[in-house]
Every structure is written in C-alpha cells, then in structure tokens.
Amino acid sequence: MQEDKDQELQETVGGENISETTESVNETSEKSPEITTEKTDSDATDDTVSIENEIASSEPAPEDEKGENDDDSVLNEIDESNAEDAEDQDNHHRHDIPILDYHAMSMENLVGELQRLIKNEKVQAIKKHVDGIKYEFDLKFQEFIEEKKEDFISNGGNEIDFRYNSVTKRQFNEVYSEYREKRNQYYKSLENSLKENLSNRLAIIEELKSLVNVEEDINTTYKHFKEVQEKWRNAGPIPRNNYNDVWRTYHHHIEIFYDFLHINRELRDLDFKHNLEEKIKLVERAEALEKEEDLNKAFRELQTLHKIWKEDVGPVDKEHREEIWERFSNATKVLHQRRQDYYKDLDKIHEQNLEKKKEIINSIKGISENIATSHRALQQQIKQIEELRDAFFKAGKVPQKVNEQTWAEFKEAVRSFNRNKNAYYKNLKKEQQTNLDKKRELLNLAISLKDSEDTDTATSEMKRIQSEWKKIGHVPRKYSDKIWKEFKEACNHYFDRLHASKNEAHKDEIENFEKKNECLERLKAFELTGKREADLATIKAFIEEWKTYGRVPFNKKNINQKFNKILDAIFKKLDVDRQESELLRYGNKIQHLANADNDRAIANERSFIRKKIEESKNEVRQLENNLQFFSNASEDNPLVQDVIKRVEKNKESLETWKAKLKKLNIMQHNLEKGENEAEETDPTEEE
C-alpha cells in the first residue's frame, strides 16, 4: 500500500518528525536500561572519554565528522539509523514490516494485528508498530469506556459504582504483556554480548594506536595492521549509544596510521587507490538513487552505502578525500531534497484529509443537534453515525499538529450524539412505563368482563377496550409478550363463550350446515350428461336449492368456498362465456353482502365497481384514440388488430361491471324494503 510506504518513510527519515533512532536514543529507553547506562562501566568510560578528547585535539577532521560539521540533518539521521541497526543485524527488518493504518482499525482488529506481529516478526523490529497500535487502542478504549459510563449513568446508575469488564481490553493487555516480556528477554540476553564487543573494539583501537610507535620492519607492521582490520570486522555489534563515537575514533587512528606509512608510500598509495575506487563505486550508486521511484527503497539503500563507506572502506589520499566526500554528500542531499518535496505534497494530502474529517465531524454534530423523535428514525440516525465513524477512520492521516485536537472534536461530537440518544431512550422508557400502566388497567377490566352474563353490555365494553389497547403505544420489551398474551386470553375467553352461546341459540345454522353439506356431496357426485341446456338447468337448480339454506355457523362458512370451487369447475366444462360466468360468480358475493347487511361494505363495493367502470371507459377511450394514428393502415396490420381486440375486450369488461352495479343496486333496494333476497340475486359466493 502506498500509504504504508508513506508512513514508513516519514517515520524512518523524518522531515520535521523525530527519527525512530533519535527517539530511541533520547527517550528513557524501555528497551534496555542497562545499555543506556553503559558508560557507568569504568573501563569503557575512561577509554571513550580519552578517545573523544584525542579526536578533539587532533588537527585533521575525519570525513564523517566533516559531514556533521556541515550540520546536515540527513547525515545525522543516517548515522543514527545505522547505529541502531548495528546493535543487531536483524533490526533493519523493521523497514520491511509495513505500518498499517491503525487509526482505521477496530479494537478487535488491533489486538489481532498485535498478535500477528509478535508471533511472526522479531521483537526488536516492531517497536514502532507496537507503539502505534497501543496508542490507537488506548484512544479507542477510552472512548468506548466513556460511552459505557454515560449509558450507565443515564440509566440511573451512580458514577462511583461504574464497572465494566472488557474482554477485548483483557486480551490486549495479555498480548502486550507477552510483547514486553519477549522484548525484555531479548535485550537482557543482548546486553552482555554488546558490552563484551565494545570492550574488544576499544582494545583493538588501542592495538591500532600502538602500531604507530612500534620499532619493526614496515612490512611486518603493515601485515599487523591488516590483521587488526580483520579483527575489527569480526568484532560484532556494540551498543548504539557508542557506535558513532567508536567508529569515528577507529577511523581517526586509521588515518594516522596511513600518515605513518609515508615511510613506505607504495603500500599506502596502493591502499589509497583501492579505497578510492571503492568509494567512487559507492558514490555512483548513491547518485543513481536519484532515479529510484521508491523513496523507502532509495533511503534504505543510501543507509547501506553509508554503512559500507564507514565500516568497510578505508581512507583515501588527502588530494581526493575532500572531493570524493563532497560527491557522496551531494548525492545524499539530492535524495534528501526529493524527500522534502515529497513531504510537501504529503502535507497537502494531510490537509485535504483534515477537511474531510472536519466535514464528517460537522455532519455528526448536525445529527446530534436534530435527534429523532421516534425509535425507527433514531435507529436510522445511529446507523448514519456508524457510517460517519467508519468514514472518519478511513479518511486518512491529518497534520500531526492538529491530530489530537481533531480526535478530541470527533470524540466529543460522537459523545454528544450518544448523550442525546440516551436522553431520548430515557424519556421513552418513562413513556413506555406509562403505557404499561394503562394496558394493565385494560387487562384487569378484560379479566373482570370475561365471564360476564350481560352480553350486550360486556360485548360493547370488550370491543371498546380492544380498540383502546391498539391506541396505546409500546411497553417495555420484557413485559410486552406477557401482558399481550394475558389480554388476548381474556378477550378470547369471552368471545369464545359468546360464540358458543350464539351457536346454542341458533341451532338452525347447524341444520343449514348439515343441509348444505348434503347438497355439496350431491353436487360432487353430479356428472354432466353432455346436453348443455339440461346440465345448466340442473346446476341452476343446485344453486337455487343452496340459496334456500341460509347462514351456517361462523366457523363452518368455508363450505361456501368449497361449493364455489365445484361450480367453477363445472362452468368451465360447460363452456359458460366469460360475462355469464362473471355474473354468476358475482351473484354469490351479492348474496354475501345481503346476508351481512353491512352498509359500509355495500358502499365500498359500489365505489369499487364505479372505479372499475371509469377505468374501463378511459381505457376504451384511449385505445380508440390510438386507432386514429393507424387511420391509413390496413386492418390486417398486427398492431391495428391488437388494438381492436383490446377495445372489444375492454367494452365487454365495461358491460360486465355495469351489470354487477345493477345487481348491487337491486340488492340494496330490496334490503331497504326489508326483503331478504333480491329477485335477480344469484346465490353463488365469490371466492
């Protein structure tokens, strides 16, 4: 990910930020207190101090020191980073481990990433990663726990009594403790080795110093010098705090020795020539890095070149010393300038991200200031807040100087919404408790009426309290099912008694059912003779007979549907035309409306039919208008034929609806006259 590379580059080489190495040197080190106080060892301290004084008093300045005298920050950063890597050869792997966008991760994902790093990576290479994860986790957990505390207080709890057991926090602490333990074990085991290597290197420097004054053949001395160099190469890592001073001291005495070799210029010049050739190669490699697109890769390569320059390649003659170092330093500065330009662009991106986050914060504030007044709408707002939170975390990094402020504003906006949300639900709970009290009153009333013998009064009252129940809003969830069940049982108990008493009082309905059932069985057994008129007359006789049997018990009324299904099947076999079949079926509905004697149902049916009549008229009118567009087209045209068919079909439908309206009007007229049936009413009931 490019953003991962940007993060790694920024934290590795700095810009305005403090480099990783600088932080590790200046801070009270968690890594190894013993190592940071290494100089309390008396031998090491005395030697180092004497060496530093010796360098300060010498006239020629080493090449590395010249770079520092130029106050070039990038050279200091490279020195510090190489010092850190020199302490452990595996430490440089930290550059290869991407630093993810921890800000956008949930607490659970942060725990998972920390576990992965500890399991798969070297503990000394993940400090920056672990620090970033811990920082983001602590921020998110603080926000989370504050929300939980607000919920607790808003529900009537006392702040002093608040406790919250977070499984995620416990898991994080366990994993982080594992990291600290591994880290401490690593640096404890490393400490003695670093101390011993430091002592060895200081002894090697003393041995190197002694070569200048030895009285022996120059060739023998030169051979001894090469052996000292080999021992130096194999002396192992030393504490990072001592690295640069020790290396500068070593190179200082290397140069003194080469000056001493003026007695044997051939040996010295041969070495100078070889070293110059090697340094030219390093310079050319450094200059080529200007074209490397990946700044991370380029800087790591530059670090390696500086390390080789310092550790593996000796000095060159004074004639070329300044020139070759100038080339190498300039190549380094070119890359540094590229980095500075890059960070200018990166700062612009961070400013854009800041604007996005400000917009998100304002959106959250807007929702918080206009909190919904219904549960459904508030749930929608909660969803919007979650989406805005996700967008905030995914918006990318902002300038470091406003990072804390931006996070604080975001957190406060979310907390404000949560406070308003909690206030709403607190009021809602009060309202639901009031509703619960009202429903309990209705429940008690229903229970008192369920065995009443005064059916006229009780029925009216039971219907009233059922209607009243529907008007009352929600009650607390834990009571909702229970109180509804009790109310429903009381109402069902009463109406079951009422229906049972009606069944007793209307035995004729049961008789009607038995007669209809017998008629139904005969209709099932009926077989067509093949003579359409005779068969149709027989079917009409069945219908007339069915009509004479009147109402059946409420729970048996599905017998009418069974009768209609059999009729539909027979009509289909008799090839009864569509309109006739429609009117026969509609006659059944007319009979149903007449028996119900419900003015509202009749009015609704009339309104429905009139609407269908108007729709059919409009459709016919529209189709006839469409035909005018085909005035010059032949009647054989498929489009014309289709429109004509649709016109005829809608005209037939129009006539059918008019006939239905006529039957309905006749039925209502007869009802108003007190008659039980209309002369033209067909007894079949529509499904």
Give the tags.
687 residues, 24 helices, elongated
Commentary on this structure:
Among the domains are: 432-503; 504-576, no CATH class; 580-673. It has helices at residues 2-13, 20-26, 33-36, 42-57, 63-69, 73-87, 107-120, 127-154, 167-210, 218-233, 240-260, 265-288, 295-311, 318-369, 375-394, 400-449, 455-471, 477-505, 507-525, 532-547, 558-573, 578-596, 599-627, 638-672. The protein is mainly alpha-helical. Helix 23 (599-627) runs antiparallel to helix 24.
Radius of gyration computed on alpha carbons? 48 Å
Strand percent estimate: under 5%
The major pleated sheet works out as: none
Helix-strand string: HHHHHHHHHHHHHHHHHHHHHHHH
Keywords: Coiled coil
Pfam families: DUF349
Biased composition (Acidic residues): 61-73
Organism: Maribacter luteus
Can I get a quick summary?
77% of the residues lie in helices and 0% in strands. It has 687 residues and is mainly α.
Write the layout of secondary structure elements.
Layout: H1 2-13, H2 20-26, H3 33-36, H4 42-57, H5 63-69, H6 73-87, H7 107-120, H8 127-154, H9 167-210, H10 218-233, H11 240-260, H12 265-288, H13 295-311, H14 318-369, H15 375-394, H16 400-449, H17 455-471, H18 477-505, H19 507-525, H20 532-547, H21 558-573, H22 578-596, H23 599-627, H24 638-672
Helix pairs in contact: 4-11, 6-11, 6-13, 7-8, 7-9, 8-16, 9-10, 9-11, 12-13, 12-14, 13-14, 14-15, 14-16, 15-16, 16-17, 16-18, 17-18, 19-21, 22-24, 23-24
Biased composition (Low complexity): 16-27
Organism: Maribacter luteus
Coiled coil: 273-305, 606-633
